[in-house]
Amino acid sequence: MKLKPLKENKNIFIDDKGRLYTKNLVKGQKVYTEKVFKYNNEEYREWVLKKSKLSASIKKNIGLVPINEGDRVLYLGIAAGTTASHISDIIGNDGMIFGIDIAPRILRELVPIIYKRDNIIGLLNDSDKPDSYLHIVPKVDIVYQDVAQPHQIKIFLENIDYYLKNRGYGFLAVKARSINVAKDPKEIFKDVRKSLEDHSLNILKEVRLEPYHKDHAMFLIENK
Ligand SMILES: C[S@@+](CC[C@H](N)C(=O)[O-])C[C@H]1O[C@@H](n2cnc3c(N)ncnc32)[C@H](O)[C@@H]1O
């Protein structure tokens, strides 16, 4: 097996079978069911496509992956840290993830992960109340959202207004069935597009996440 960096982001790697990886920031730490292995004296973790909407969207050619070393990231719906751990690998120890989740039980699962990762802070908050973490979260380079809620677009836009820097980026993972089970996902994604455009955000790319995540899409936006 041979790993090479992606042209879209030199801190994400691909093997000859098209599987994605990040370099493990915490040697020996496994976060979920991913494979961890040594290659050229470095340790890598597979970024499993079915476990992360971000790796699935990279696989589905979202194109630009504007996540850089030293970035500050506001992560809404961090859960047990599956995707956040790979972002943590990419941004390194000069970056910081402010990870919000409303569910204490799932956030407890995050504790052993962040205990060893100095670049993730876990916050038990409702991301629908963005002013409740104003005292902790600064302006950020990226807002990442994966909360699977009927009003998830409103939550995303409010957090962008509070926290995203000018020319910052946003990743919005939309689960059509959480917004409306009865409506055709295509129509839902069209409505999402309109809401983002009405908010003067620049939509850089929209990708559907099948076959890895059914009825999901990822939107990559830029704050004009
Ligand atoms: C699909 S899971 C996130 C998975 C995670 N993004 C990953 O890829 O590793 C959705 C998470 O959003 C959280 N959530 C739902 N509503 C929320 C809200 N209003 N504020 C913060 N978190 C919320 C849930 O508790 C759940 O952990």
Give me the number of helical elements. 6
Give a list of the ligands. Answer: S-adenosylmethionine
Q: Looking at CATH, which topology of the largest domain would you report?
A: Rossmann fold
User: How many strands, what sense, and barrel or not for the largest sheet?
Assistant: 7 strands, mixed
Please state how the strands of the largest beta sheet are arranged side by side. 8-7-6-9-10-12-11
Strand content: 25-35%
Structural class: alpha/beta
Number of strands: 12
Number of domains: 2
Overall spatial form: globular
Q: Tell me, rounded to a whole number, the average pLDDT.
A: 97
Q: What is the percent of helical residues?
A: 25-40%
Radius of gyration: 17 Å
Low-confidence stretches: none
Separation, N- and C-terminal Cα atoms: 41 Å
CATH class of the largest domain: Alpha Beta
For this entry, what is the oligomeric state of its chains? single chain
Topology as a string of helices (H) and strands (E)? EEEEEHEHEHEEHEHHEE
Keywords: Methyltransferase, RNA-binding, rRNA processing, Transferase, tRNA processing
Pfam families: Fibrillarin
Family: Belongs to the methyltransferase superfamily. Fibrillarin family.
EC number: 2.1.1.-
Structural summary, described in words:
This protein is an alpha/beta fold and 224 residues long. Helices cover 27% and strands 30% of the residues. The protein has two domains: 4-46, Phosphorylase Kinase, domain 1; 53-223, Vaccinia Virus protein VP39 (Rossmann fold), CATH 3.40.50.150. It contains six helices and twelve strands. The strands form two sheets. It has a seven-stranded mixed β-sheet, with helices on both faces. A five-stranded antiparallel β-sheet has the order 1-2-3-5-4, with helices on one face. Residues 52-53, 76-77, 79, 82-83, 100-103, 106, 126-128, 146-149 line the site of S-adenosylmethionine (SAM).
